Description:
Number of helices: 13
Number of strands: 14
CATH class of the largest domain: Alpha Beta
Amino acid sequence: xxxxxxxxxxxxxxxxxxxxxxxxxxxxxxxxxxxxxxxxxxxxxxxxxxxxxxxxxxxxxxxxxxxxxxxxxxxxxxxxxxxxxxxxxxxxxxxxxxxxxxxxxxxxxxxxxxxxxxxxxxxxxxxxxxxxxxxxxxxxxxxxxxxxxxxxxxxxxxxxxxxxxxxxxxxxxxxxxxxxxxxxxxxxxxxxxxxxxxxxxxxxxxxxxxxxxxxxxxxxxxxxxxxxxxxxxxxxxxxxxxxxxxxxxxxxxxxxxxxxxxxxxxxxxxxxxxxxxxxxxxxxxxxxxxxxxxxxxxxxxxxxxxxxxxxxxxxxxxxxxxxxxxxxxxxxxxxxxxxxxxxxxxxxxxxxxxxxxxxxxxxxxxxxxxxxxxxxxxxxxxxxxxxxxxxxxxxxxxxxxxxxxxxxxxxxxxxxxxxx
Length: 420
């Protein structure tokens, strides 16, 4: 047994419960995508893995398993679990840290961020992507194909669309992108995604271009440098979070599809969490890093003359077993969630960033609004640019239920209200 495994400690690994051949199973995976391996394990192995908290050796794990279940698990079997987790780089320790540094340094050296969803969320063959996305415009509940752009079309400086899997939320994406396609085309799109597994600050930048099956979407190096200068080098400290994060990649594919010959330049920004601010009741505007980001984004919009669009890649509520809730997904719960979502979205429609934040704070974020930071930053930057709250128009709202995990995600599409 190595020093790493004398009292082994499991990293922050995501566990997804599912059923296969009538049996419960668990899929263990690295949410940070340092390791791309997925381990499919039995409930017994999962329990042993959960006991690896750095406080127990093998004998103590055996004793704890016996105490809980009245069954003696052999020391060789515990060691086999530990060995498998260590080989997958799921355990903390010196060897993991050395390996992690190598992986992160290798990623930083790459000029582009490679796609991770091609072949799963959307087709891998570029010839199939156009038809795949266009079908969401014409599907039941879709908005119909975008109309030809009028010569005097006004710009859309702010857009909110989901980042849920396209097969679950594709028509809501289509409602948002129809509004963008019919508007004056932007030259720069700042995509504010969600760092679902990030470890950095409130905002994480990258200088990398984004590669998809449709080609390479260029990142606006000048704008990234400007934001980096405002935020400091800490904004690049967790750049590796971009590698495995899907919330910007999906939007990159849509932007390339809408403008295949001349797509806008991308500014990829991953947003961290406001969890501590919600708990303390602290206004995001009072936090220096947030205030500087909002100020710079507002200045970009003001100076851009309609050529800059802020795109909040944001889902709304996350409820159910998959997200740690023990409440059953009933029709009543779905109706209540929609009622609360629509109350919250009224504040977004009013352009009220602080009202939106306060709504989530009063709920104690019980519904886990994962698009809080991107939407907040978008509304606040619009207000800075205009000198007043800028209304948004609700284009579509939907809820998606995943029966296998009895879980719910809600999402919406909104665009800057350009009505005269």
